[in-house]
Amino acid sequence: MKHASIADRRNTTSSASEDRSDLDSANGSTSNINSVLLVEPHQSPTNLVFGYLNLFSDGVHNFTDGMALGSAFLLYGSVGGWSRTLFLLAHELPQEIGDFGILVRSGFSVSKALFFNFLSALVALAGTALALMLGQDPGQSSLIEGFTAGGFIYIAVAGVLAEMNNGSSALRSTAIQVTSLMLGMSVALCISLVE
User: Fold this and answer.
1) For a disulfide at 145, which of 6, 22, 71, 104, Cβ 3.0-4.6 Å?
2) 144 neighbors 135 (Cβ within 8 angstroms)
3) Conformation bin of residue 85: beta by default, left when phi > 0, alpha when psi is -120 to 50
4) Angle (nearest 5°) at CA 31 between 28 and 37
5) Within this chain, do residues 86 and 166 fall inside the same structural domain, yes or no?
6) CB–CB of 135/81 below 8 Å?
7) What total number of domains does the chain contain?
8) Per residue in 50-61, pLDDT tens?
9) Are 90 and 6 contained in the same domain?
10) Model confidence pLDDT, tens digit, residues 121-149
């Protein structure tokens, strides 16, 4: 009887330790998932420099967007200005979300990334104010629009086309790219016809 109780204790202990190891492994996998999701990116100087470069380029881009908005209100009145405002908002929202992700991945905390992204977005107001001040002279407003159009064309040629060429050269991929380009041009044409 004494041997039976020792054997029962061993089985119970063994079973309890197996249950505990199963529980630990389950908790371990959960904690591993949590650690993957909540891991702070490595805050190396290279990562931070990448984040600050992104902030600078986003600020320049937002300044150019602001100049485009200011010149749109000057050249096309409130209807043209507001339609371009809606167009730029549709373009900016996904970009700002992407910029936020880049900042967090570069080592910024979530609150700092939100704050600096907000400051970068405020630069658009400076661009709008500059365009409105310079645009009081009728000859200047068309120059401002030409400057901003040149900036957008540069972004398209240097960034978008280069990225399109990095992909596969399959016929299907090329057809999708050309269709997307034509769709974008059609939307721009429709907006200009409505104004």
Assistant:
1) 71
2) yes
3) alpha
4) 145
5) yes
6) no
7) 2
8) 888 889 888 988
9) no
10) 999 999 999 888 887 776 776 677 777 77
1: tokens are 């009887």
Closest to 188 (Cα-Cα) out of 71, 83, 79: 83
Residue ranges of the alpha helices (H) in the chain? 2-38, 45-105, 110-134, 138-155, 162-166, 171-194
User: What one-character DSSP code corresponds to residue 136?
Assistant: T
Residues 71 and 148 in one domain: yes
Is the Cα torsion angle 162, 168, 171, 176 positive or negative in sign? negative
The domain containing residue 13 runs over which residues? Answer: 1-39
d(CA 88, CA 94): 11
Instruction: Answer yes or no: do 179 and 108 share one domain.
Output: yes
Same structural domain for residues 159 and 189?
yes
Instruction: Kindly report the number of other CB atoms within 10 A of residue 99's CB atom.
Output: 23
Same domain, 102 and 182: yes
SS3 label, residue 39: coil
